[in-house]
Write a structure and sequence with these properties.
Layout (H helix, E strand, L loop, with lengths): L6 E8 L3 E10 L4 E7 L7 H11 L3 E11 L5 E3 L1 H17 L8 H6 L4 E3 L4 H48 L2 H21 L4 H15 L2 H20 L4 H20 L4 H21 L4
Parallel strand pairs: 3-4
Antiparallel strand pairs: 1-2, 2-4, 5-6
Length: about 290
């Protein structure tokens, strides 16, 4: 399926420490650009989140936010191992400095590692964060698919309109050459009193070669067919569609420069407008 690059998803879960929440916001970008906004106590989870996002998203600017809201259920406890180590160190220090003042309770509680948070277990937080990331990515992918289907339909409508425009312009070329021939013969008759058929045919041949748009129309048809094929193929086709839009624009410009009549010029202008609308849509396709 065609995927958009714009979307939003959020997921949250309760933990012993509080509510862990994850948000994903994505917009269009030429490459995958993941921006992380994570609380310092959760920073160790960043590599895992980047990996999970990279596995599911190929292109776009993704803003990932992970935060923890402390709840009343948060509990703390003393780390028995850290307490034992601190006690042993305090005993050795007291033996070395008998007159030194002993540790106070406040000093013990401030010692690094003495107070441990039961909910700060890294494996538990990692497991919860992985589930939240998967859930949010599923939601984001669904949003990308819904919008991608709309974008594909919009591009398909423009392609159909361009095909009609090309087929409308194609028969105008012989009419333009015939009109030029009649006009040239009339001018020669007015200037010379008679029209030189050989001279008229030579001038018309030069004119026809100069304004011939058959090659441009053929390329336009080929590019439009390729756009339709890519849309049916699906997947990460945004860059391919953007390239095809550039080629369609190039052929439309050439067609406009060769326009031998106002009707052809109007058709070329209509094509350019439709191409620009396609380019605007494909900018958001992954």
């Amino acid at each position: 399926m065609i995927q958009s690059m714009t979307g939003y998803a959020a997921s949250s879960a309760e933990s012993a420490r509080g509510t862990l929440a994850l948000e994903l916001r994505s917009v269009n970008s030429r490459f995958l650009d993941v921006q992380m906004r994570i609380a310092e106590e959760l920073r160790a989870l960043e590599p895992m989140l980047r990996e999970k996002i990279g596995e599911r998203i190929a292109r776009g600017k993704v803003d990932c936010r992970l935060f923890l809201t402390e709840g009343s259920a948060a509990t703390t406890e003393l780390n028995e191992s850290a307490l034992a180590q601190l006690k042993a160190l305090s005993k050795k220090a007291q033996e070395a400095f008998p007159k030194a003042e002993g540790l106070r309770i406040a000093d013990v509680l401030r010692w690094p590692g003495v107070i441990s948070d039961a909910a700060s277990d890294e494996r538990e937080l990692r497991a919860i964060a992985e589930r939240l990331c998967k859930r949010a990515l599923d939601e984001l992918s669904a949003a990308h698919s819904r919008e991608g289907a709309k974008l594909a339909a919009a591009v398909g409508e423009r392609v159909a309109a361009m095909r009609k425009c090309v087929e409308k312009v194609a028969p105008l070329m012989p009419q333009s050459v015939a009109a030029y021939q009649a006009k040239l013969a009339e001018r020669l008759k007015e200037a010379l009193g008679s029209a030189d058929d050989d001279r008229v045919r030579a001038e018309v041949a030069v004119f026809a070669a100069k304004v011939d748009i058959d090659e441009e129309l053929t390329r336009l048809r080929a590019h439009l067919g390729e756009v339709e094929r890519v849309l049916k193929q699906g997947g990460a086709v945004g860059k391919r569609l953007d390239f095809l839009a550039q080629e369609l624009n190039r052929e439309s410009n050439t067609l406009a420069s060769k326009a031998a009549s106002p009707a052809i010029a109007d058709g070329a202008l209509e094509l350019k407008v439709l191409v620009e609308q396609i380019r605007e849509q494909v900018q958001n396709i992954e």
